[in-house]
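Section 3.1: Structural characterization of target chains.
Under the original work plan, the team committed to producing a structural model for every single-chain target entering the pipeline before any wet-lab resources were allocated. The record below documents one such target. The sequence was received from the expression subgroup and is listed exactly as submitted; it comprises 542 residues.
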Amino acid sequence: MDDRSKALEFYEKAYKIYEKAYKICEKALPPNHPDLATSYSNLGQVYSNMGDYSKALEFYEKSHKIYEKVLPSSHPDLATSYSNIGQVYNNMRDYSKALQFYEKAYKIYERALPPNHPNLATFYNNIGQVYNNMGDCSKALEFYEKSHKIKEKALPLNHPDLAISYSNIGSVYENMHDYSKALEFYENVLEITKKALPPNHPYLATSYNKIGLVYNNMGDYSKALEFYEKSHQIREKALSPNHSSLAPTYSNIGQVYNNMGDYSKALEFYEKAHKIDEKVLPPNHPWLATSYSNIGQVYNNMDDYSKALEFYEKSLKIYEKVLRPNHPDLATSYICIGTVHFNMGDYSKALEFYEKSHKIYKKVLPSNHPYLATSYNNIGQVYNNKGDYSKAFEFYEKSLKIREKALPSNHPDLAGSHLSFAACYERMGDYAAALKALQSAFQIQQQAFQEGNPAFASTYSWFGRVYRSMKDYSKALDNLEKCLAIDLKTLPEKHLYQGITYSYIGDVHRLMGNYEKALAFHQKALNIQENVQCSPLQVATT
């Protein structure tokens, strides 16, 4: 029996015990007795741990009503009650509600506890988590650091709770794309974990995993694989072959191969993860939906759109059964399906799914959330490809405004916004404006990434295409060759993107009258086309 099954069995036993206690209390005690409130709270906690948040809320609220009647307004148990309800709303991703209850709890704790009390540290941590989930990184950092300062004063240097604190702060820097800072904090976690725990402890595996994730986001895939494999080796030694905790490690390794463009390897690892999930999870579990989605993403990248849709739709069916209609994971699922239709050139279908996603985000997210910016950008891309440039600009500008407010000035998504504008200007034939937008994107990427990062390849490619259209062939060639150098270093041999770049370079040589070179590069492009499932239009240039 694996950890998930054991946990479920434990919670079911706990539920039976607490339910018996609750029935006894209900019969023996007056309706507003504090022990009855405790009983309701215990049941709420079990439901919360089982992921049944509506039931958890029902019992926590019953408990809270009693506490409100029988306790003074500044009693710490009332604060705990507010905090429990806040946690459920956080798990349900209703972040404004979560904050509302956490702030009520905070007012009580602040009055009742000394400034360095451990409960305050836990509480600051909870508020930080909500802000982190909302994408408000500066607020998240503020509260995580308050929590950390209390722990630093109260705990020895290598205490595991300090490691958790470092990890939380690292996660905010990771979300801010400040990867050097994220690594600094995650390495602190690793140092504490190595000293405090045996070499094959699961927490060490988690620590390696987080460092691997940062390297993956930095585009340093060899380093990412190194740390993911360290994590996997620990879990493989400690666990049975079909243990549920092995599935996420297979998924992470699959994600790196997917990012490297090695899709056969990505599929191999995603399918290993999926087989475990199928064995240990109920058929409508959300993690199975994620597993289907991962496989769908690889097929989408391989341009096998019918397979991609098949897996994305399996994922969507699960989400539609188990999630509320406005859940953010449903929105993500709609985006995935919309993107496949976009790649197939079915722009009306793409728009339909992007708008479904957008409606959810508008209902459940704050108006400056980065996901809303991505949503506006997706819709803008559809209008751009349809040739409706005024509509495209309208949505791109909405996206950029949010990103400028919500993100640090060197965030890669800001570069993405400028690249979207550049693509639009290039299609309209306004090459000077396209170049200006590309330069803005490039300057941000220089601040965000190390030289040679895969993100630069797309920007160099766009520079090359714009200079080609402007008939500045030497600059076009210079940028396309920079793009190719990155593609050859970071992608597997004969990757589709290499073929596209060879084709662009061949076209520039043709326009310069270098016909032998043009032929050689087009031949390289065709050799790749023969080995990759793609439309000839994806490799050919005009």
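The two ends are 60 Å apart (CA to CA).
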